[in-house]
Each structure stands twice: as structure tokens, then as C-alpha cells.
Specification:
This protein is of the alpha/beta class. It is built from 12 helices and 29 strands.
Length: 649
């Protein structure tokens, strides 16, 4: 009863103050009762005010937590303010301030930190976390996590800055490392997998020690990836034990980096989705659950933005169609804020709904533009799924891009539950795109020549029907632009390959996981195909290997595995390469030792999956422009699209 009286008196006092003040527009937010059930976590970025959305204008009323993005990580591996002006210096005018008044000149700090503090005063149950890193600022995490001393230094710096200096603002720390080992803007180290868990343990240890002194429990969370190649680089049981919960970034499954339109954030996979079966929210959640993460520690992310393509033919209203490129977005090409979609596109463009994926899209035939996005209807379905699965809640990236209607949709899902999962199609043995025999070989010298190989290659790749990727319609002009002959054989010690590549211009600037932007040969292998013939996802017997000559000068040749069987992504241990330059391109010989190919059996009669795919770019500093493949249905992460290889004498 005492708490109720205090709240009533506080509300009356607030109303009296407002009534006695000079007449003006007020932005004071209503006091709300936070839900006791599911969490609704919204990221608020430091740059939002420069885009006209101060915290007072964002839909924060029903949030249980705000993750403020981002803190940077210094070269020395310490937490530092990401944007000092936005974080603590900007003085807010009355029309932008949470209080409806100009910032008090007696405040210890200003900026977004002070606005968050004022919001917490209005809503005492709201928790605020500082999010560290993000896509742009994750480059120094690997160094910060590398040893015990660096981990202690990093944890102490974050705690000193955010939980001590700005103790009144922050209730915890959210680590957004994109990504350990590989897959982000900056490559890490294979040691990142173990070191990330150790870093979180050190944070937990120091945060708990501080909490014991002031009777507080400080929250520790992470933002976690959805790509199969990035998930495999995480020690999920270890991470789950250290953190309060994991925010799954279940969006950006598809975007304008894909040449085919698809959904940004499908809840379920559709029966006719041409992409990897792992690229949907349900598959991600089930993967984390299967890895041992408790449902109570999983928060499913939802986007308040969409992805858009242009140059999309009017077939099936643009869904799963080839695109020419990114459509002009709100602030950057291919990306559309929901509020922009609501105001400029929804009123006039045809709206479509996919009953299996539980997401909408827009398609305008006049401009040939396709936009995948989420609205209140799809968010209700996703929040209902969260309820049905017993997950901890919903995370939003990011709240300034949407409105209160979207958040109301989330709460409707919590109340009503979600849609039924689409009925799986009957399992059908997928025909392989090709079947062939590989003969046993001996006496192969790694000299970059073809003298040890038969005159007739195993594969010839020079037809338009073998093109599996083109950045634009004219990216492949014919066999003189890119073509290849490929030989392959086996011996007890490993697999041998030779390639005679025609390429009118050789371009390569990387010897790491970004080598796919330049000229390279790709080999995909499924070493135990018979055991998972119908598995649509990559696992510990699958490989995706890029073979690069380098730039023939300062960039070295390398064999890099993005999917590396049971091992972390990286260079193939024991791999041998030799090459020679020809008038029309190059000859490349490669040996992959059996020890590097987990699960493979190299004996007569053994069967495995394989694709060979040459890739080309002709633009220095550009990206992949075309790829041919032995499989005309090749995808980067679906072993069902690999050909069937049988070993013979």
C-alpha cells in the first residue's frame, strides 16, 4: 500500500507542476508500469539525434531495457566513449529534452547519458546497458581478449567508466563483438573462441565483485550472430553460463549483398526459399537451443527497418527474383527505416504477406523495387513465437527507426501467442546436380604444370548455364573473361587438384577471409555425404575453401577455409599450392592432406560431395563479379547443392 500512495502523490505533484508552469509544448513521457513477464529491449544509437530523433521522440514507454550504442574499444583494449559530444556534452533544448525543460546547467554531464538518466527517473524500473563494440568498432576486441592481463584491463576499464563514473545511468554491459575469429570488418584469431568466453567470465567476476559492495546485480549480455559460420566460432555453453541473456541478431539474413531478393528477417523458412535453410529466425533459435543455451537466456531480435532491391522483374511480385542492385534507401542504399516505409511507401505501394515466413513485403512494378520489412503484424507473430518457445523476450534494432505501433504489436504477440510452424514438406532425396568418378593418382608433382595430368579434364567450366553469380547482367562477357578446366584425383594421403584458368585480368588484394572479393578458385566438400544427405546446413564434415594466387607481388598465395570442418575458419593446415602464369591466365595445382579433411575416407568406393567454382573480379578494390560452378544450383552453405563424387581406381 505504501508504494501505491507514493506513486499517486508523485503523479499528483507532477501534474501540479505542469499545471502551474508557463504554457508550452511538453515532451514529458508518461509513467508506465513495466511488464513482469517478457523483456522488450531496444537499442538506441548515439547518432539518432543527428537524424532528428532524440530520446524523447523515440518509442521508449513500454521498453524494459535500453541498450545504448555504442562504446568504442581503444587500441590498447579499453572501453572509451564512442562519441563524447553525443554521449555527455550535447545540451538539449526544452523541445528535445526528456523533461520538457532545457538541460539543467548544474548537471554533472549532459548529452544522451543525461537524457537516459532523466528517463530512468520517470520510469524507475527501466534498465539501461552500455553496448560495447558494434559492427564498426569491434576491431580491437581480439587484442582486448588475448590474455589474462588484457582481459582484466578491459573489464576494469568498462566498469570504471560506465558502472562507476556513470553509475546513475548504466545497469550493465552488453558486448557486441562482430565477430570473434572472422566474419566482421576485421579478422580476429582462432583463439577468439576461447578468449571470448574468458573475457565474459572476467567481466562477470569484476561486475559481481562491484555488486557485492553496493548490493546490485549488474547485467551482462551479448549480441550474438545468426550466420552458421559465425555461430560455430562461439563457445555457447560457456557464454550462456557467464551472461544474463543473449540477444540474437535475427535480422539481415538477406540484403543487397545477395543478388536475389529475399526476406530480411523471416520467422520461418518457406518451401520455395532458394537460400540456405539456416537463414531464418526459427532455425537460429533452434540452433542455439541445440547447442545447450537455455530458452530463458535467449532474446530474439527484430528489425525496425527493411531491405530493398531495384531492377527486380515483376514475377511473383518480386519475391526470390534476380535484382540489379540496392534500391535508394532512407539514409543508405538498400536500407529503409520503418517510419520511412510507413510514410512514403505503404500508402501507395502494393502490400504482400507471406504466410509461411510471417513477414510482409512491398513491390512496385513501375520502379521494379522490392522492399522486405517488418510491421506490427509480423512483430506480433514473432513475439508470439517468443512466448510459445519460452524465450526471454524481444530485442529491437533499433527503436528510432520505428513507432509505438510496432511495440504494441510485440505486446500483442506476448498476449496471444504465435503462428503454427509451417508443416515440413515430405523428405525427398535431393538429386545431385552431377555425379562423377575420381580416379586414384600417383606421382603428382606440385610444380604448377599439367604434365602429370591426363589430357582430358574432369570438368570444363565455360558455359553461361554454369554461371551461379553475376554482380550485374554484363559481369561475365564469355569464356575469355572467366573459364576453367579442372582435374582432380585422390590418393591415400589426400586430394589433388589442378586448374587451368582463363582470366583476362588478375585481381587479388587479400590473403584472408576477404579473398572472395578477388580472383580465386573455390572447392566445396561434404566429406560424409551419406550420413547427412538431406541436411541443408553446413556442419563439422563440410568445407568451403578459397584458393588464391595473391597479387603475384606483395599479397601471398593462400588456401583459406571459411567453413573448415570441425576446425575454426582459417588457412588449411598442410595444404600445398604451386602455380604458373600463362598468356591467358594461370595454372594452379593444389594438394589437401587427408588430415585436414575431418571425416573423409579416401579408399576405393568412398563417396563424398564436391563442387569446384572459379570466381572473378576485374576491378581493383571491388568485389566478386562472377562465378561459374560445377553445380548450377550452388549455394555457399547448402551441401545438398554439391555434386556426388565416387572414388575409383
Amino acid at each position: 500500500m505504501l508504494r501505491i500512495k507514493v506513486l499517486v502523490l508523485a503523479l499528483i505533484f507532477s501534474l501540479c507542476l505542469n499545471g502551474c508552469a508557463p504554457s508550452k509544448t511538453s515532451t514529458v513521457l508518461p509513467i508506465t508500469t513495466q511488464p513482469t513477464g517478457k523483456m522488450v529491449i531496444g537499442y538506441y544509437p548515439s547518432w539518432a539525434t543527428t537524424r532528428g530523433v532524440p530520446l524523447s521522440a523515440a518509442p521508449t514507454q513500454k521498453l524494459t531495457h535500453i541498450n545504448y550504442a555504442f562504446s568504442n574499444v581503444s587500441i590498447s583494449g579499453e572501453c572509451v566513449l564512442g562519441d563524447t559530444t553525443a554521449d555527455v556534452e550535447k545540451v538539449y533544448a526544452a523541445n528535445e529534452s526528456i523533461t520538457g525543460k532545457e538541460d539543467d546547467n548544474k548537471a554533472d554531464f549532459y548529452g544522451n547519458f543525461n537524457q537516459l538518466l532523466e528517463l530512468k527517473k520517470q520510469n524507475p524500473q527501466l534498465k539501461v546497458l552500455i553496448s560495447v563494440g558494434g559492427w564498426t568498432w569491434s576491431g580491437n576486441f581480439s587484442n582486448a581478449a588475448k590474455d589474462e592481463a588484457s582481459r582484466q584491463r578491459f573489464a576494469k576499464s568498462c566498469i570504471d567508466l560506465y558502472l562507476k563514473q556513470y553509475a546513475s545511468v548504466f545497469d550493465g554491459i552488453d558486448i557486441d563483438w562482430e565477430y570473434p575469429v572472422s566474419g566482421g570488418l576485421t579478422n580476429g584469431s582462432p583463439d577468439d573462441t576461447a578468449n571470448f568466453t574468458l573475457l565474459l567470465n572476467e567481466l562477470r567476476l569484476q561486475m559481481d565483485a562491484l555488486g557485492e559492495t553496493n548490493n546490485e546485480h549488474y547485467l551482462l549480455t551479448i549480441a550474438a550472430p545468426v550466420g552458421p559460420g559465425s555461430i560455430r566460432n562461439l563457445d555457447l555453453p560457456g557464454i550462456a553460463a557467464a551472461v544474463d541473456w543473449i540477444n540474437l541478431m535475427t535480422y539481415d539474413f538477406h540484403g543487397t549483398w545477395d543478388s536475389t531478393t529475399n526476406f530480411n528477417a523471416p520467422l520461418f523458412r518457406t518451401a520455395d526459399d532458394p537460400a540456405d535453410a539456416a537463414l531464418n529466425a526459427d532455425a537460429t533459435v533452434q540452433r542455439y537451443l541445440a547447442e545447450g543455451v537455455p530458452a530463458s537466456k535467449l532474446v530474439m531480435g527484430v528489425p525496425f527497418y527493411g531491405r530493398g532491391w531495384t531492377g527486380v522483374a515483376d514475377v511473383d511480385h518480386g519475391l526470390y527474383q534476380s535484382a540489379a542492385g540496392a534500391a535508394p534507401g532512407t539514409y543508405e542504399a538498400g536500407s529503409f527505416e520503418y517510419n520511412d516505409i510507413r510514410d512514403r511507401y505503404l500508402p501507395t505501394w502494393p502490400y504482400y504477406w507471406n504466410q509461411e515466413a510471417n513477414v510482409p513485403w512491398l513491390y512496385d512494378s513501375a520502379s521494379q523495387t522490392f522492399i522486405s520489412f517488418d510491421d506490427a503484424r509480423s512483430l506480433e507473430a514473432k513475439a508470439g513465437y517468443v512466448k510459445d518457445q519460452g524465450l526471454a523476450g524481444v530485442m529491437i534494432w533499433e527503436i528510432t527507426q520505428g513507432d509505438q505501433n510496432l511495440i504494441d504489436g510485440i505486446y500483442a504477440g506476448f498476449a496471444n501467442g504465435g503462428p503454427a510452424k509451417p508443416t515440413p514438406m515430405p523428405k525427398v532425396i535431393v538429386p545431385r546436380p552431377f555425379e562423377t568418378n575420381l580416379h586414384e593418382v600417383s606421382g603428382i608433382s606440385m610444380d604448377g604444370q599439367l604434365a602429370d595430368w591426363p589430357e582430358t579434364p574432369n570438368f570444363v567450366l565455360d558455359q553461361e548455364s554454369q554461371i551461379v553469380f553475376k554482380a550485374t547482367s554484363d559481369s561475365w562477357s564469355g569464356p575469355e573473361d572467366l573459364s576453367a578446366k579442372a582435374w582432380s584425383g585422390w590418393a591415400s594421403e589426400g586430394l589433388y587438384f589442378a586448374f587451368q584458368v582463363t582470366d583476362e585480368r588478375h585481381v587479388q588484394s587479400a590473403a584472408d577471409d576477404t579473398l572472395w572479393h578477388g580472383d580465386h578458385m573455390e572447392i566445396q566438400l561434404d566429406t560424409q555425404m551419406d550420413e547427412d544427405y538431406d541436411n541443408p546446413g553446413m556442419n563439422d564434415d563440410d568445407f568451403q575453401i578459397g584458393l588464391s594466387l595473391g597479387d603475384l607481388a606483395s599479397v601471398p598465395s593462400v588456401g583459406y577455409a571459411w567453413f573448415n570442418g570441425a576446425n575454426s575458419p582459417g588457412e588449411i593446415q598442410g595444404l600445398k599450392m604451386a602455380f604458373s602464369i600463362t598468356d591467358t591466365g594461370y595454372i594452379l595445382e593444389t594438394f589437401i592432406p587427408v588430415e585436414a579433411l575431418s571425416g573423409i575416407t579416401l579408399v576405393e568406393g568412398a563417396v563424398f560431395g564436391m563442387n569446384i567454382s572459379p570466381s572473378d573480379t576485374d576491378t581493383l578494390g571491388g568485389s566478386q563479379e562472377s562465378m561459374l560452378s560445377t553445380s548450377n544450383i550452388r549455394t555457399y552453405a547448402d551441401p545438398r547443392t554439391f555434386g556426388k563424387i565416387t572414388l575409383v581406381k
